[in-house]
Amino acid sequence: MSQHPRTGDGATPIPFIPGGGLTRRILTSLTQNWSIPTAALLQFVLEGDNREDAHLLAAVVAKALGVDHAISEWKRPGSWEQGLFGTPHEQTLYG
Description:
Blueprint: E1 6-7, E2 10-11, H1 23-33, H2 51-65
Antiparallel strand pairs: 1-2
């Protein structure tokens, strides 16, 4: 498969991204009328608790941007505290 699949009007500048979900579609739609340079960073991880993977990706991006010295601690989104693996099970079910 080509890295630059053809569309009805020719080749797209966004390469095929295996496992990239909607990333390619979003980037393709932005390049049509968007004058701000745009990029996407993807990290492929295993299933399960990926909070440390998220911290690693954020740290790498901060270092690449040269702002890692300004960050003393990462703040986790509130949505990660409850609901990350679904709602807690009713404990009375377990006797």
